[in-house]
Amino acid sequence: MIVVAAASGAILYLQTRHAARTQADAMTAGSWRRGELAIARYQCGSCHIIPGISGATGAVGPDLTGVGTRAIIAGDQSNDPVALARFIAHPQRVRPGGAMPEMGVSDGEARDIAAYLYAQE
Ligand code: HEC
């Protein structure tokens, strides 16, 4: 009985995770899978804590755990897929003089990264 409950709990977890990822890709028109690789490549984790990214323990910028659940990002931007991707691609255009540097992230890569961040539980 306990084994059955644990197994169905695990299946439910995996289904929820899968649904969150599918929904995140649809919302952003990006790919969470490519976003994961882009986050590692740009070393966003040198400044941010990002769950699921090895070595992403930076404390310069805000912790990105659950960033999808926040109403406001980057100080004064309402949190939607377009605004999040725009900020990731061009933080200095969105917040001139802010502490997040321009890193040369393309618009497509920014959508992928936004998908990864929204796909977290
Ligand atoms: C040199 C350090 C640094 C690097 C590297 C960096 N960031 Fe940031 N990031 C910051 C700082 C500082 C802020 C807060 C900026 C602000 O509010 O103006 C920030 C803000 C953010 C926010 C808004 C979070 C919130 O809750 O307001 C997101 C999302 C984000 N960064 C994603 C990324 C991604 C993705 C990368 C890699 C492409 C990255 N950052 C690389 C320093 C960095």
| Biggest pleated-sheet summary | 2 strands, antiparallel
Bound molecules: heme C
Helix count? 5
CATH superfamily name?
Answer: Cytochrome c-like domain
Looking at how many chains there are and whether they match, the oligomeric state comes to single chain
**CATH-derived architecture:** Orthogonal Bundle
Q: How would you classify the helix and strand content by structural class? A: mainly alpha
Number of domains: 1
Please indicate the percent range of residues in DSSP E strands (runs of 2 or more).
Answer: under 5%
Task: Give, in order, the helices and strands.
Answer: HHEEHHH
Uncertain regions spanning at least 5 consecutive residues: none
Mean pLDDT: 94
End-to-end separation in angstroms reads 28 Å
Proportion of residues in helical segments: 40-55%
* CATH class category label: Mainly Alpha
Give the tally of β-strands: 2
What is the CA-atom radius of gyration, in angstroms?
Answer: 16 Å
Strands of the biggest beta sheet: in what spatial order?
A: 1-2
CATH topology: Cytochrome Bc1 Complex, Chain D, domain 2
Overall geometry = elongated
Domain Cytochrome c: 30-121
Protein name: C-type cytochrome
Keywords: Heme, Iron, Metal-binding
Organism: Sphingomonas floccifaciens
Can you describe what's shown?
This protein has one domain (2-119): Cytochrome c-like domain (Cytochrome Bc1 Complex, Chain D, domain 2, Orthogonal Bundle). It is 53% helix and 3% strand. The protein has five helices and two strands; from the N terminus they run ααββααα. Strands 1-2 form a two-stranded antiparallel ribbon. Helix 2 (32-42) crosses helix 5 (107-119). The protein is elongated, with a radius of gyration of 16 Å. The model has no long low-confidence stretch (mean pLDDT 94). Pfam families: Cytochrome_CBB3. Residues 30-121 form the Cytochrome c domain. InterPro entries: Cyt_c-like_dom, Cyt_c-like_dom_sf.
